[in-house]
From TrEMBL:
<dbReference type="InterPro" id="IPR012347">
    <property type="entry name" value="Ferritin-like"/>
</dbReference>
<dbReference type="GO" id="GO:0005829">
    <property type="term" value="C:cytosol"/>
</dbReference>
<dbReference type="Pfam" id="PF05138">
    <property type="entry name" value="PaaA_PaaC"/>
</dbReference>
<dbReference type="GO" id="GO:0010124">
    <property type="term" value="P:phenylacetate catabolic process"/>
</dbReference>
<dbReference type="InterPro" id="IPR011882">
    <property type="entry name" value="PaaC"/>
</dbReference>
<dbReference type="InterPro" id="IPR052703">
    <property type="entry name" value="Aromatic_CoA_ox/epox"/>
</dbReference>
<dbReference type="InterPro" id="IPR007814">
    <property type="entry name" value="PaaA_PaaC"/>
</dbReference>
<dbReference type="InterPro" id="IPR009078">
    <property type="entry name" value="Ferritin-like_SF"/>
</dbReference>
<protein>
    <submittedName>
        <fullName>Phenylacetate-CoA oxygenase, PaaI subunit</fullName>
    </submittedName>
</protein>
Length: 249
């Protein structure tokens, strides 16, 4: 597959699946403000997905649309990071998943503002404002709940312990990114991991949360290897388009 198409699918699939997971909190969040905030963030992420899929579809040149890419690919054809497909165990897990994603998403969007590919550069320049709001919100909640009551601290630490190994999948760099850096479409992305480490070190310390020790990094999502929850997410997300593929409304 063309490296440009692969990179755009990795980015778009990651925002799509997190948007789907985030939207599941609509009507279920513990307070109304968070219910609305999660729904709005999900809309932002799915809007970004549409832009990534448009670039991918144009580069691919096979006549597929963003809807085709979202609803008519199989699990192994999705290239999202495994972190975003982790289940909505509880609100602590949802917040921690969002924060770890945001801590990666902001620096990569800031880096992509320097992309040599015009459409990617314009996408990043447009979405980076939304992403800054996202991390401001998730960072604040992580600190408040981590440094809150004994119960909230324990729940946030448990969520961090469970999700931290999956953060590695966000920052994995392989021949795809290296090829795009080599031709100037992408700026060097090494700084993204550095920014992630700096952000999480400061915020998690303020939240009195301990970063887990070096364990087994959970990677593979960006090459189509997913966790047991991915099939369930796609089954729910793709049910209507696959049942009525010619429907229009």
């Amino acid at each position: 597959m063309d490296p440009l198409v692969t990179f755009c699918l990795r980015m778009g699939d990651t925002t799509l699946i997190l948007g789907q997971q985030t939207a599941a909190w609509c009507g279920h969040a513990p307070v109304l403000e968070e219910d609305i905030a999660f729904a709005n963030m999900g809309l932002d992420l799915i809007g970004q997905t549409q832009l990534w899929y448009e670039i991918a579809a144009q580069a691919e040149g096979q006549g597929r649309t963003p809807d085709d890419l979202a609803f008519f690919r199989t699990e192994r054809q999705f290239l999202n990071a495994q972190l975003v497909e982790r289940p909505n165990v509880d609100f602590a897990h949802a917040l921690m998943r969002q924060y770890l994603f945001d801590a990666w998403h902001l620096p990569i969007q800031e880096a992509l503002c320097e992309s040599g590919h015009q459409a990617i550069r314009e996408l990043a320049q447009k979405s980076v404002k939304e992403v800054r709001y996202h991390i401001d919100r998730s960072r604040d909640l992580i600190v408040r709940l981590g440094d809150g009551s004994e119960e909230s601290h324990a729940m946030m630490q448990g969520a961090l312990d469970a999700l931290w190994p999956y953060a590695a999948d966000l920052m994995a760099i392989d021949a795809v990114e290296q090829a795009l850096v080599g031709i100037g479409m992408l700026p060097p992305l090494d700084r993204v991991a550095c920014a992630f480490e700096a952000e999480t070190a400061v915020t998690l310390d303020r939240a009195t949360l301990a970063i887990p020790g070096n364990g087994h990094a959970r990677t593979g999502g960006r090459t189509g290897i997913h966790t047991e929850t991915m099939g369930y997410i796609l089954a729910e997300m793709q049910q209507i388009p696959r049942s009525f593929p010619d429907a229009r409304w």
